[in-house]
Amino acid sequence: MSNYHIKHLEEYYQVYRKSVREPHNFWEEIAEEHFLWRKKWDTVLSWDFSKPEITWFEGAELNITENCLDRHLATRSDKTALLFEPNNPDEPAQHITYKQLYHQVNKMANVLKSKGVRKGDRVCVYLPMIPELAVAVLACARIGAIHSVVFAGFSSTALATRINDANCSLVITSDGAYRGAKTIDLKGIVDDALNSCPDVKTVLVVKRIHSKITMKPNRDCWLQPLLDAAPNEAKAEVMKAEDPLFILYTSGSTGKPKGMVHTTAGYMVYTAYTFKNVFQYKENDVYWCTADIGWITGHSYIIYGPLCNGATSVMFEGVPSYPDFGRFWDIIQKHKINQFYTAPTAIRALAKNGTELIDTYNLSSLKVLGSVGEPINEEAWHWYNDNVGKRKSPIIDSWWQTETGGIMISPLPYVTPTKPTYATLPFIGIQPCIMDEHGTELQNNQVEGRLCIKFPWPSMARTIWNDHKRYKDTYFSTYKNMYFTGDGALRDEVGYYRITGRVDDVIIVSGHNLGTAPIEDAINEHPAVSESAIVGFPHEIKGHALYGYVTLKEKGESRDHNNLRNEINQIITEHIGPIAKLDKIQFTPSLPKTRSGKIMRRILRKIAEKDTSNLGDISTLLNPECVQDIIKEAL
Ligand code: 6R9
């Protein structure tokens, strides 16, 4: 029996039990047999959640790119590593083989070195979904630089905050991005951002849309000529197991994004192992994850997990609606996709467009359908199952987070019987539990509470960049000796988990995590605004959309409310990005507050959800009278 590839339910239970009873032996075997090390570890795991301090494979030395690239050259050099499907369906797809990717990464690594980037330096990558994005990420890893990929939908202010927080010295971007029928001026956004980033010395620019942009002398360079001139071999830097591999920002409940730090060895082992099993990847399969590499899903399951397994991983530059809502099905047919991993918001948007288009495509190559990013509602689950999978491909509803690095709770296709809306069973080595509000673990089945994890796993984030205290406070202080996920969950009668949604101030809109605090901070900058509170409300396609309650400085402010609404959304777009725009904005003379001055979002949430029959206890409010006014004026 190989513990690396689980093929039956009994095997799952057997391996799971071993991984929990003897975690050290278990992970040692996986690491030993399936990866390339420069030096083996002294200690498999040491941990203390009270500090919190976690190390995996301490003492080991490796380079993750040797695992993703070099070791495949002997057997898979002509196999497609990345299959790039451009935004425009008439532009030919690119099949980049392992050998070609190896050389491209090495060239890029040499360019970075020639620009003075050294081990431990931070490099910001702000690129559309083009091959250079994956190449840049791997090139950083090759030379031991820490990559910080910022999703190219973020605004210049959001980009600048992230560049400065990590003190990046170099930015890689492009002259622009294609997005459906539109183009986006990425370089212009970078130029704006860099007005407030004094430490950035170099900007490397990929030519993608051939637009006219300004190149700042002594700072900006076109990337291609540098690549052409660079040698195509670069020595892989020898990294320690716990050296940081990357920083990736995620929203939190304060205004500042959290730079989650992932380290090298544990992240590699866990993402590779989960990829193999959660997608049941076989040697000649073509795997497609539709996420953007700007999010953790793209890091772990477009780049590192698949490449570590020698897989063919598709990168799609465009959007599901361009040139029409058949694009996903067209790509599945064209590249004979075997595993397809997408988000509930995309499924809902596609479902809304009916099944006429989908029925004209041949989707028979599909074997596994994945879902990630937010709870998948029952209707979307069935639509996906009936129309995409034709009831033949299991749906893998995989729960995990930026912080967890890899998939934590998920069925294994053809192994775990699925159940609509349930992420089902913990992955090997994962020990979830459900806690009540008093900090007691609910041991039985058929319980509901808050989801925690009791024991470390290899790919967990080790800290927040420059803010270890916040890491401890956010994840390890709510419950003693537990990692707290911020999600609610229930466990059914057979032990299956269902994730019920966030229990903190994070709202997931179209699969993007948005903290309420940064949005409120942005709105409050509008000169007419005194205060604001954001809540989520159910939305047919986005899952949740944002509802803002705004109080104005001057009572009876006579300005046109629609103009104000536009201005508020404009400020949000500038500070965060269009993804954080509010669907509804209600102006109200005051917000319900507790005696300690906290806005009672619970009530505002109910009003936004149009569920005002039971508002619960409002007696602790300082100003209970405002509640009826808000209900009366609700949108
Ligand atoms: C991978 C990713 C994390 C949050 C997480 C949870 C929600 C993700 C889910 C899910 C229910 C699933 N989430 N997958 N909720 N079922 N299958 O999405 O990371 O962007 O950090 O979001 O997303 O609320 O806490 P990230």
TrEMBL record:
Location of the Acetyl-coenzyme A synthetase N-terminal domain: 12-68
Answer whether the UniProt record assigns the keyword Methyltransferase to this protein: no
Give any Pfam family that matches: AMP-binding_C
Coiled-coil stretches: none
* Residue span, AMP-binding enzyme C-terminal domain: 519-598
Q: Which UniProt keywords apply?
A: Acetylation, ATP-binding, Ligase, Nucleotide-binding
Q: Which GO terms describe its molecular function?
A: acetate-CoA ligase activity
- Transmembrane regions: none
Q: What is its EC number?
A: 6.2.1.1
Gene3D superfamilies per the UniProt record, alphabetical: 3.30.300.30, N-terminal domain of ligase-like
Domain AMP-dependent synthetase/ligase, by residue range, is 70-462
Keyword Nucleus among record annotations: no
Top enzyme category: ligase
Task: Kindly give the PANTHER family that the UniProt entry links to this protein.
Answer: ACETYL-COENZYME A SYNTHETASE, ACETYL-COENZYME A SYNTHETASE 1
> What family does the database annotate?
Belongs to the ATP-dependent AMP-binding enzyme family.
Show the NCBIfam families listed in the entry: Ac_CoA_lig_AcsA, PRK00174.1
The molecule here is called: Acetate--CoA ligase
